[in-house]
Amino acid sequence: MARKFFVGGNFKMNPATRAEKVKLVETLAAADLDPNVDVVIAPPALYVIPTAELLKAKGNSFVKVAAQNCYIKSSGAFTGETSPAQLADAEIPYVILGHSERRTLFHETSAFVAQKTKAAIDTGLSVILCIGETLAEREAGTTLAVVEEQLNAVVPLLSAEEWSKIVIAYEPVWAIGTGKVATAAQAQEVHAAIRNFLSKAVSPSVAENTRIIYGGSVSEKAAPELASQPDIDGFLVGGASLKPEFIAIVNVLRKS
Ligand SMILES: O=C[C@H](O)COP(=O)(O)O
User: Which region is the signal sequence (predicted)?
Assistant: First the structure.
């Protein structure tokens, strides 16, 4: 079965005001989006529920909402955290975990990201699991070792069935927010290696069915060639998800 194209918009800590957020979500809710694509937007925590409510109020059940992070516990004395159970209760279906900004700025280890992934999956959420190497790691020739280490932390914690709730986002750190998008060949090479890894570490069927999306300075211009690669199943878009350009990226495969 063909893997369904998946485009996520990671707003990160943007936009700065509720008014801008409303405008952004209203534009997306009214847009003509390819129905053959899974579209998920991840606003900051403060806006997660209002975004879901706004989409509902606009009659849009197509665009789904993701949180950008969650903790490993259901509730308790964990100041500043959001639990997977709270997200599930709020009917937020997705969570982004392991983004490089969290790994780097907030010192999240692969083991911790894996624990979060397990907690989210156990709660019924779907996970956009981010992995990727830094420029130094790429230049040292360790790209595949890095992404395999990040995935290896998750593999023992999930059953083969649970992989159906995971979308892997390969995001080379050197391409994030830099305007320096990976070439289609560079991205395809790593995506194919990740699929090969999944085949050996989990199963050929999980490898075949798991969506592996690319993130890192995705733009309307770069999207078509990246999307034409056999192992690139969509995008996780940062900066461009805050612009009308996001609609063109979602619609990249649409035949007019
Ligand atoms: O989660 C999204 C990625 O970090 C990509 O961000 P960017 O498109 O701004 O480079």
Answer: none
